[in-house]
Amino acid sequence: MNLFDAIHTRRTIKEFTAQPVPDDLLMQALEAGRWAQNHRMTEPWRFLILGPQSRQAIAAINGDALLEKTRADAETQAKMRADAEAKILSKPRIVAVTCCLCGDKEVEQEDYAAVACAVQNIQLAAWGLGLGMQWSSSGFITRPATYQLLGVDPAREMIVGLLYFGYPAVVPAPKPRKPLAEVSRTLP
Ligand SMILES: Cc1cc2nc3c(=O)[nH]c(=O)nc-3n(C[C@H](O)[C@H](O)[C@H](O)COP(=O)(O)O)c2cc1C
Is the CB of 135 under 6 A from ligand 1? Predict the structure, then answer.
């Protein structure tokens, strides 16, 4: 796929087919992340590939998070929990992305940007391989329970997102972007 085609046609994919994602394709996409630009060569990204047990556990955390906000009756709560868990488990592959924290605010800001570059590389590479991806920054991912589950020490690393991968079931239409003239200006 031509680079500009990949940039223009890439979409955030939220609905996936049940077709399993081969390990080597997932690894090829993550490999592309490793080659992202990063100031000072900090390589601040870490990728945590969730296995079956961790997927179940993260789905349960999503259920817990949802139920905290409701006063629905027990039957409704049971359904809400089941739906919340099923939503996460419908993602064929889940990879958590973290950013190492060094304690220097300026470097941490650069490092967060570098991790975002890595995620973009990963999503474009996945797209080129026929895979869809969604970057999720949903609130439940930064709960203490999620840090504990992933074995991430919040003093040393920050969870930046969960990446959901799979073969696209639905490719949404592109959302309109502001024209370049509106978001740029040429200075004298
Ligand atoms: C930092 C970041 C966090 C995001 N978090 C979410 C999210 O939690 N849920 C979601 O549906 N999409 C999320 N997205 C994807 C955007 O919603 C998506 O890129 C945007 O709607 C444009 O659609 P497109 O990617 O198909 O062009 C996130 C994107 C970024 C850059």
Answer: yes
Distance 99 CA to ligand 1 centre (A): 18
- Residue 88, token pair as written in the block: 């996460």
pLDDT tens across the length of the chain (188 residues)? 899 999 999 999 999 999 999 999 999 999 999 999 999 999 999 999 999 999 999 999 999 999 998 888 989 999 999 999 999 999 999 999 999 999 999 999 999 999 999 999 999 999 999 999 999 999 889 999 999 999 999 999 999 999 999 999 999 999 999 999 999 999 99
Is the CB of 62 inside a 6 Å radius of any atom of ligand 1? Answer: no
Residue type, 168: P
Does residue 177's CB lie within 6 angstroms of at least one atom of ligand 1? Answer: no
In the three-class reduction of DSSP (H, G, I as helix; E, B as strand; rest coil), residue 97 is classed as strand
Assigned CATH for 3-50+91-170: 3.40.109.10
CA-proximal residue: ligand 1, atom 9 (nearest): 136
Q: Beta partners for 134?
A: 164
Which pair of tokens denotes residue 60? 């349960």
Rounded to an integer, what distance in angstroms lies between the CA atom of residue 178 and that of residue 176?
Answer: 7
Domain range list for the chain: 3-50+91-170
pTM above 0.85, yes or no: yes
DSSP string, 56-84: HHHHHHHHHHHHHT----HHHHHHHHHHH
